[in-house]
Amino acid sequence: MPLGDTPRSRCQFYRRECDLPAVVDPPELGRIVMRAGSVWALTMPSSLGQAVKVHMQNRSIPLGPILAHPRSNRWTFLIAPDLPESDTRLFAELFRLNVAVARTGSTIALPSPTSTAAAIRRWIVPPRNHFRPSGQVVVAAIRAWAPPDRRSR
After folding, report:
1. How far is the C-alpha of 3 from the C-alpha of 75, rounded, in Å?
2. How far is residue 143's CA from residue 56's CA, in Å, rounded to a whole number?
3. Does position 115 have pLDDT exceeding 70, yes or no?
């Protein structure tokens, strides 16, 4: 852990530099979370996440923040909230692909500098500014790698 990096300072960085509505909750554990609203998330198996990341990079599509959950072997892409709220076909398609959507009101946990939190989640692509890719762009990349029998019907 870099000298001076605390849950509180990391949370302030997320809020000021990255426009992520993060809070330390609970303070005694140093866990950092945010409520989805201006930012949503797509969480998927890490193998799919890796393929989506490479797909986007190969097409020069800018990557936004991506975090890993090593224990559950999943990756989360933070996205702009531009997916239709009530598109049940889209959410069913993503569900078949084992992709969860954290929409408005959901809680999203972020990496914290505490020793225990580092084993639970870490940044693949850390946030550096306010940029998040379009959710539609990330969904298109997911579809590009989805098995044909699991795509939209």
Report:
1. 27
2. 12
3. no
pLDDT in tens, 17-69: 999 999 999 888 889 999 999 999 999 999 999 999 999 999 999 999 999 99
**Can you say whether residue 18 is alpha, beta or left, with left for phi > 0 and alpha for psi between -120 and 50 degrees?**
alpha
DSSP lists the bridge partners of residue 79 as 40
Tokens of 88: 């049940």
**CA atoms of 92 and 31, how far apart (whole Å):** 31
| Cα atoms in the 13 Å half-sphere on the side-chain side of 52 | 30
Answer whether 145's CB lies under 8 Å from 52's CB. Answer: yes
| Distance (Å, whole) CA 130 – CA 147 | 32
Write out the two tokens for 59: 């097409």
Task: Indicate the residue type of 118.
Answer: A
